[in-house]
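Sorry, explain these tokens?

***
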Amino acid sequence: MTETKQNSLGTEPIGRLLLKFSVPTALTLMVNCLYNIVDQIFIGHAVGIKGVAATNVTFPIGIIAAALALLIGDGCAANVSLHLGRGEQEEADRTFANAVMLLFGVGILLSVFGCIFARQLVVFFGASPSVVAEAVLYMSIILLGQPFGMCNMAFTAIIRADGNPQYMMRSMMIGAALNVVLDPIFIFVFRWGIQGAALATIIGQIVSGVIALAYLPRFSHFAIRKKYLQLKWRFIGDIVRLGFPSLCTQTATAATQIVMNNLMRKYGAATIYGSEIALSCYGLMMKIYQIAHAMFVGLASGTQPINGFNFGARQYERVKQTIQTAAKISIGISVLWFLVFRYGGGFLAALFVEEEPLYQEFAVHCFRLYMLGFFVYGLPNVTASFFQAIGSPVKSLMVSLSRQVIFLIPFALLLSAHFGMDGALGAAPVADVLAFLLAALLLKRELRGWKKKNMIA
């Protein structure tokens, strides 16, 4: 039964496989984003702009946790898919066991480190003096649940490689539903404010994490065996090598958030909006952006087991068909989200803070300028996943880092020095277009090389 299920990656129609693997993964990640968004909505209505700004500046710590989780989860999933495609069962089992041990250790270390240096971190993340205390309180509580949150993120990729992406979707939805129920109780009934929002979030994460861990004895294509639990550098190296692009992508997101937070604080203070409105609007935009981004990550991640298995099995035509189909879908999703950001910024902002004219005005402007090039956003995501799945981490890393590290951060610093806050925001569409062109070029060259080697028609 196991063999038949795994072989479906090499025989089932590509479109059906993409639906099976991408949709649950995308929904899982989108639900995970709701933890932050629900908190922001309730905090915005209960505490106001200051509370939104305080929680927004802690966002990078969640991205860093996700980066470490995806380093391990995506690295494990990519290696396991390649091993299974080659028929290397023992190697798959050893990789999985090492990934689980590594995940537990990294999660605990991050929580301890973050709690010890919470104040220094929120200042570094861009908190203005008026929101530092609230930001430290919120982040210190959030960090307690991060090991479970990291389990959710990592197991999403690993369980997907086992052929059951629906399981983690249900897990995340249960946690998110619990968060939605507890948020108003803790914030409005118990009047715990920001502290209540943080507690609701970590309770949801802990429940989802426990459900994820409950899947350990249920893996069908690989298993965690006691004799393989000792960490081995060879397997850690393989996990890190193929998971490194995912780590860099998420770390780049955190770096971008930190740089932009500091630019919003600095240049926002010189405008009629002030630092707090600039910080809160940019932060809420990033929360909505994360939902859009989750769709692309879901699509890209859904292609990974398909590409990895078929590349390992030398079915290169199916790999080509997968990336071509995913590329077309990614462009379609990009255009739809571009229209949402272009015409729905005011509505989205009103969900968080109402009856604040300056806040609304800047939010609309922020969405329209920052997302001006979003119609080409999707291709780099699926291209990076393609290179990761076929065992080309350098090219995957180049595409993963292109938008934020190679283009966005340098242009934001350069343009803001000349044009202030609008220069910082205007760097995003420039980066989107340049990252798209780079991804298209590398993908075209790769497939052309396959054709010259007679790997594809």
